[in-house]
UniProtKB/TrEMBL annotation:
Residues 2-159 form the Aspartate/ornithine carbamoyltransferase carbamoyl-P binding domain. The gene is argF'. It comes from Neolewinella agarilytica. GO terms for molecular function: amino acid binding; ornithine carbamoyltransferase activity. This is N-succinylornithine carbamoyltransferase. The keyword Electron transport does not apply. Pfam families: OTCace, OTCace_N. Belongs to the aspartate/ornithine carbamoyltransferase superfamily. SOTCase family.
Length: 311
């Protein structure tokens, strides 16, 4: 793999899941891959899991790792031809070129604006790093996708499924802030490309994901109907795609025990961080069917599979 931005960069999803599982079984068995190699993690936004798991993965592969909080560094310019007389001090052409000389893999996290749909959905920042870096680029979450999370979710579902083809429901859930569509887009994209689950997406009217990620045939606006017979409930909030960045106060969409009772004793999944009793009730997230900590653990093995493929 020369880049890891979306599922389309993965030639064989099951082979990558198998690699992640192999790293989980023997974390240090591939510690030769990263010897004398450097991984740089560049964060424009906050993180707990992605930062820690990607650093851990790099180290377990024998690589050294530098994490750089770009929000505290020089402001980076992404427009070409601009007169840089405002807040940006350095152009991405130089920034990506310089960082490429310091590392063998460049990992980047950059969230969307949620105000400029066109720029966000062009994945302008991530694409600029790919264009101007001379080393492989890994998305640690871009304006549109979170592929390391999605690979993790495939691994977690493959570990816990009770049937060959489980019913998986990605459901919108309430949140007090407006959030990106990345995790939901990416989850939908990977589940469809993987082809080993039946995916339904439940969301309120007005919150359909972009058609490229969520064909109308798999979208339901009735959460209770969607939950019927589900084997996995994957909860996430996202702001609107059509009325770009809009939110809604819909507390009835919370995932609680009553709704989980409609399912086929489903597992509960969430990428974290999660707001308790807003997105999901304490009873559901604390239940034996909650997989949120297993998902967070699997972030390391997914990152190790991706970095290992590049190193
Ligand atoms: N799930 C996830 O990406 O968590 P962080 O934002 O803490 O990295």
């Amino acid at each position: 793999m020369k880049q890891f931005l979306s599922v389309s960069d993965v030639p064989d999803i099951n082979a990558l899941i198998a690699k992640a599982a192999a790293h989980k079984a023997a974390p240090f068995a591939s510690s030769h891959l990263g010897q004398h190699k450097m991984v740089i993690n560049l964060f424009f936004n906050s993180s707990l899991r992605t930062r820690m798991s990607t650093e851990k993965a790099a180290r377990q592969l024998g690589a050294d790792v530098i994490t750089y909080d770009a929000s505290g560094g020089w402001g980076i310019e992404f427009e070409d031809g601009t007169i840089m007389n405002a807040n940006t001090a350095e152009h991405v052409r130089e920034a990506a070129g310089v960082l490429s000389q310091y590392c063998d893999v460049l990992c980047v996290r950059s969230f969307p604006t949620l105000t400029d749909k066109e720029a966000d959905y062009a994945d302008r920042i991530m694409k600029a790093f790919v264009k101007y870096a001379s080393v492989p680029v890994v998305s640690m979450e871009s304006a549109t996708r979170h592929p390391l999370q999605s690979l993790t979710d495939c691994l977690t579902i493959s570990e816990h499924r009770r049937t060959a083809r489980p019913k998986v429901v990605l459901t919108w859930a309430p949140h007090p802030r407006r959030l990106p569509q990345c995790v939901a887009n990416s989850f939908a994209e990977w589940m469809q490309a993987w082809g080993e689950v039946d995916l339904t997406i439940a969301n309120p009217e007005g919150f359909d994901l972009a058609p490229a990620f969520a064909p109308k045939s798999i979208v339901s606006h009735n959460q209770a109907e969607a939950f019927a017979g589900a084997d996995f409930i994957y909860a996430k909030n996202w702001s609107a795609y059509d009325d770009y960045g809009a939110t809604a106060d819909l507390p009835d969409w919370i995932i609680d025990e009553q709704k989980m009772a409609l399912t086929n004793d489903a597992f509960f999944m969430h990428c974290l961080p999660v707001r308790r009793n807003m997105v999901v009730s304490d009873a559901v997230i604390d239940s034996p069917n909650s997989l949120v900590l297993q998902q967070a653990n699997n972030r390391t093995w997914a990152a190790q599979a991706v970095l290992g493929s590049m190193l």
